[in-house]
Amino acid sequence: MADFVKPAFIETEPDSHFPIQNLPFGVFEHPVTGEARCATAIGKYLADLRELEEHNLFENTKLHGKRAFTFSTLDLFLSLGTSAWKEARARLKELLTGDDPALERDPGLREKVFHLREDVKMLVPVRITDVTASLNSLSYIKNLQSVFNQGKELEHRLQQMPVLSHGRPASVFISGTGLKRPYGPRQLPGEKNLTISPTRMLDVELCTGFVTGKGNLQGMSMSVRKAEESIFGHLLVLNWIARDFQAGNADDVNQKPGFHLMSTISPWIVTSDALEPLRIDKVQEEVSIMRHLRAKKEHHYDIRLEMVIESSQQGEPIALTGTNTRYLHWNPAQELAHRTVTGARVNTGELFISGPVSGPERACSSLMEITADGNELLVLPNGEERMFLLDGDRIRAGGYGEAGGYRIGFGEVSGYIEAAF
User: Of these four, 139, 295, 405, 419, which has the most CB atoms within 10 Å of its CB?
Assistant: First the structure.
């Protein structure tokens, strides 16, 4: 059932990603003080949560006295658990709809609390303690088989359990960050030995991600139900890959081809609670599900994803692909449960990245798939050609789902390529 609530007194457009039913969480740089502050998004505005907290507007909730929004990241808030997250959203709805008029009727407070989102700089919202990357799309793996004639073993493995690998927290950046074309180990045409040179096959993968709240103790595995309660929220991710760099792990079936350079995340974390109306039943697979991955009712989310390119020669965005999170094989709770099946510890603020969200036919999530690893030219409307990304290219991606006449969205994630020199 759709989450029906009274409209916000802050005007929101019908196609806004951030209606009152969403209320995602992020961190912004205060335009006057320069401080990093926690916030929620509503329409084209954000609301400063620290300002609300300092005016005792969370007094009758589980957040009272916790100083959840005092610090420069959302970490403390995440550690309070699912009941506190739900209470925070419920309290924000009271304040933003005027059910509690404390904010609506105080012009001075409103001026301190609300900022236009386009006028502020967004920051990485949590202190990311660890990164787990996955390959979670059978369509992507089948595309690997088509392009590289490899990946059959990986397909069989993914049908039985999530395929996870370790990432690097230091390589995670906020939306809008530029990527200087990197140098790396490449084998040039006609050369026997490797050389260090700029990548000629710079790619991007459209992914989703989720952030953990309360973790587990060392040696204690999570059930799927417990894992669901431990996921704070979800965001969009762009993975930047140098397809021609040699990573030294070509025989490792867990690794996607190429060298992962960095990940760019969207600034707003959409809570699992807000995504509840976008749940859809998961189609049962032929391969039997391992016991620790089973749930009473398995599900996915119905979230449309789009990725566009803007070249330095043509400023208008040009569609690259459209796909949907329903194409992912395992849902986030199953991935988190699998991560802990051996008793491995998961901390507050860990980032899980889904890998490319590719689907059937042309629902590809990387240039490698779209151009068959550079063997098929992608021709842009202005006549420009692409095999992989060129200097000056900007990638933008967005995603949303619809329920009950409103959208629950993630806003935008973007990044651009700078010249090596």
Answer: 139
In this predicted model, what pLDDT tens digit does every residue of 81-108 receive, in sequence order?
A: 999 999 999 999 999 999 999 999 999 9
What are 101's two structure tokens? Answer: 């008029």
Token digits for 375? 């063997």
- The span from the CA of 166 to the CA of 364, in Å, is 24
Total-model pTM: 0.94
Q: What pLDDT is stored for residue 167 in this prediction?
A: 83
DSSP 204: E
Average pLDDT, the chain: 91
Question: CA-based angle 111:114:115, to the nearest 5?
Answer: 110
- Residue 210 and residue 228: Cα distance in Å, rounded? 11
CA distance 275 to 296: 19
Name which of 147-151, 279-283, 299-303, 388-392 the model is least confident about.
Answer: 147-151
Tell me the Ramachandran region of residue 383: left when phi exceeds 0, alpha when psi lies from -120 to 50, beta otherwise: left
Q: Which amino acid is it at 343?
A: G
Strand-pair partners of 208? 236
Q: Look at 169-183, 198-212, 236-250, 258-272 and tell me which has the smallest mean pLDDT.
A: 236-250
Q: Rounded distance, CA 30 to CA 12, Å?
A: 22
Compute CA distances 33 → 55, 120, 131, whole Å. Answer: 18, 12, 31
Q: What is the amino acid identity at position 45?
A: Y
In angstroms, the CA 76 to CA 78 distance is 5
Concatenating the DSSP letter of every residue in 350-413 gives -EEE------STT---BHHHHTTTTTSPEEPTTS-EESS--TT-EEEEEEEEEETTEEEEEEEE
* Domains of the chain and CATH, by start: 25-123 (2.30.30.230), 131-418 (3.90.850.10)
Phi, psi of 54 (to 5 degrees): -70, -20
Orientation angle between helical segments 138-148 and 152-160, nearest 10 degrees:
170
229 Cβ partners below 8 Å, 6+ apart? 81, 82, 214
Give yes or no for a contact between 364 and 201, defined as CB atoms under 8 angstroms apart: no
Question: Phi/psi at 60 (nearest 5 deg)?
Answer: -100, 30
